[in-house]
Structures
1.
Amino acid sequence: MKKVVIFPSNKVLDSSRAWRYFSKALTLSPSELSLIKEKYFLPAKRGILLKKEFIDKLSKNLDISKKELLNIFEVGGKMLKVNKKLINFAKKLKKERYEVIIIGTSTDLLASLKVEKKTYGEFSKSFMSYQLKALKSEPRFYKKLFKLIKKNENDVVFYENESQTLKALK
């Protein structure tokens, strides 16, 4: 039976620079950014608020044009730092006939950005929270994931060390 190795997207892509850019471009204080994340990004990560509605609501709230907001996301998306060592490791595993999957807590907008889309393409499959309608830190995310990949826990290795995720896996 083909074994599966699963990588979390936050280990493969570092978004800290992109978030700093987003916050600076929109002149958001840390508390304002936190509120924006809670009000718009969290429902988008859960697949409740999809790209068009997300952009409509966020641009209205921030009093910025949709085009300008999308441009900020595109520029910020180019600031994602790709962990090339993990990408190369994933490629090596694929050559050794492992199924290599990337999972994460993302929105359909963020997942469609050039760097994220290209990075996810390096893996056999990708499963994001907006697709599974659950956050990666929630047990139901993994129930849905195992059902979709048609594997049991014994056939899967997680490249993960975050306590929230490990709790959700139990």
2.
Amino acid sequence: MTDQPFIPLSAFVRPQVDLNLCAWRRAIRGIEIFGTWSLTDNRPCMVLVPSGLPRWMIPCIVPLDSAHLWAVETGDYDHIEKMARLFAANLGFGFGTSGIFAVMTAVQDCLGDLLMMRPRPAADQHAVADITMTHRHPDGSSTIVKQETISDAH
């Protein structure tokens, strides 16, 4: 035994994103998707977490710089399959095909929103309105909930 003090892992782990500050938020197939900004470089990113679970878990992050790898038209299918499999397991879907497909669909459905994100708001801006829109597919197969925050400088 050594006499060195115990240092918890949390002393070395720093948050990468703040889900309280987001440009948009969606709920698709049991996954909550946030459009937010990286705390390390302030660049836009997409964050996936399981619906209804606490936010203390490790999120799945798609940085803006990697968005093209997920696109149907220009994507790298090996990358998509590998990352979707890892994300599905981390989100609690396991390694089955339905979980992988749910992750791929969720990411690809939100790529346009990620690409259209504005730069991170300045610290002197504050929220003036929240908007929630719900779109249900006519056959009832899916529901997309879109939340936007309108901010203004004071």
3.
Amino acid sequence: MHSRKWMQFVGGLTLWMLLLTQAAFAEGGDPWGPDCDNPNVVACYPDGTHAIVGEHELHEGSDVVMRSGSSDVFHQWFEGTSPSEGEHRVYTVWKPSKDKGCDHKWMYVQEPYPEWGDYFPPGQDSCARNNVTHDRD
């Protein structure tokens, strides 16, 4: 039961972050990602070439990753361009996989350490979910 409550909490947190991002974006605000000097930020790249989990092409832009408290849940904000999507933003939530599986609409990522980030616990599989937003100027 503890596991189910944790998953509900993570799912609720994810939904809250997605809604917050969408609401602020719709009102013209720019809350995109935390500042790099935030103590929970584990990776901050103001510009460069990046891979996005679940996508097959490289992207150019900024990328910030923040740990959620002391958990192994990470929030990732990318803003930039790719050949097929043009300018866009991708918000990704990474959470530990349970029993080598993920909930519906989440991607299973086998041992993301160190390929996806040296902040992931070694040997732990993850689930990731993207939310892509395209600017509508």
